[in-house]
Amino acid sequence: MAPLDGITVLDLTRVLSGPYCTMLLADMGARVIKVEQPGKGDDTRAWGPPFLEGESAYFLSINRNKESVTLDFKHPEGRALLEQLIAKADVLVENFRPGTLTKLGLDYDTLSKKYPRLIYCSISGFGHTGPRWKQPGYDAVMQAEGGLMSVTGASDGPPYRLGVAIVDIVSGMFAAYGVSMALFSRERSGKGQEVDLAMLDATVALLTYQAGNYFASGKVPARLGNRHPSIVPYETFTASDGEFVLAVGNDDQWKRFCAVAELPDDERFATNRQRVSGYDALRPFVADRLCEKTRAFWIDGLTKAGVPCGSVRNFDELFADPQLDAREMIAMVEHATIGPLRTLGVPVKLSDTPGAVRTPPPTLGQHTDAVLRSDLGISADAIAALRRQKVI
């Protein structure tokens, strides 16, 4: 058994933060029923190229282990069907703009009165409280508003957005964490509760030591490129054939690095505090030596000496690493229209109750008939009538 076997999640989310949350829950055994708009589905089904047999690679990346049901719950009959699904669910996850579901009577306050064991997770830009609660949230905006962009990029260049939608992803992770904690709490109390996840809060939580440094010093952190504000040398360097990362975390590692690099023992750089304050002198002291040899030369010697380092790899290099196969981080599933489909694996490894990639991302409405028949007891004739009315 996986940890969340027997838990049913009703997924009313779209795009990235919500689907990422529900995918994490599905990976750990929850049954996730993804409710999508008839004829259109999740917005990301149209995001591309690339497409595989008409299926968006973006959508495929975050919707494995789910069932897809098309349902127009603004239609009275669709709303009635949704209520029946909610009654059978343990968890409902949504990422509509705050206030949208309140107008439909699908907010937490309304539903919790009818379904007191329901765990209701809302993901939004600014949360459901505070002066900005009505504002929508988008990853790029949150990277800017949440301080991440201000510390990302070269010191003499503009602020940069990260190369992945990190705010959406971490918001989904925090939401899955919140749902899991609420489920654990329900085991003790018998009561459901609301999980209110703001993307701004998730972004601020990522600031960790940068925020700590600011609180301690009152100084606004600056962009430092790949350099670390509190550890030196801890950044990218250029070898004779490309970039690699050197991450010297303590003074003992510094001594071992100097031995491998055959650098003289310089008292100016003996401690991390000295290396941070003397960065301008230290950087060329290190860089001039490292550019003389290849990445493989340095990584081999430094790894043997116990000095953290690694090559800056592109995706071809990354996904050729046998370590990923050993860790089952690349999975194969059989998709309904694509056939064999390669996807990422489950990063959390549990020894007794592991998660798994069990099923491929669904095609739009792939499970509508099966769910309506088996879960709600609706006849084939009634399902056909609902389809003619475009309820499903």
Description of the molecule:
By secondary structure, the chain is an alpha/beta fold. It has helices at 17-27, 57-60, 76-88, 100-103, 108-114, 139-145, 166-189, 199-206, 208-217, 251-261, 272-277, 279-290, 295-304, 315-318, 322-326, 368-374, 380-388; strands spanning 8-11, 31-36, 51-52, 55-56, 66-70, 91-94, 119-124, 194-198, 234-239, 242-247, 309-311, 330-335, 339-344. The protein is 39% helix and 16% strand. The strands form four sheets. The protein has a six-stranded parallel β-sheet with strand order 5-2-1-6-7-8, sandwiched between helices. The chain is elongated and about 85 Å long.
Give the overall silhouette: elongated
Structural class of the helices, strands and pairings?
alpha/beta
Enumerate the spans where pLDDT stays under 50 for 5 or more consecutive residues.
none
Helical run tally? 17
Question: How many strands, which pairing sense, and closed or not: the largest β-sheet?
Answer: 6 strands, parallel
Q: What fraction strand?
A: 15-25%
| DSSP summary, beta strand count | 13
Q: Give the integer mean of the pLDDT values.
A: 97
The percent range for helix content is 25-40%
Distance between the termini: 33 Å
Give the strand order, joined by hyphens, for the main sheet: 5-2-1-6-7-8
Element order: H for helix, E for strand: EHEEEHEHEHHEHHEHHEEHHHHEHHEEHH
Rg, Å, rounded: 25 Å
Quick overview of this protein structure:
With 392 residues, the protein is an alpha/beta fold.
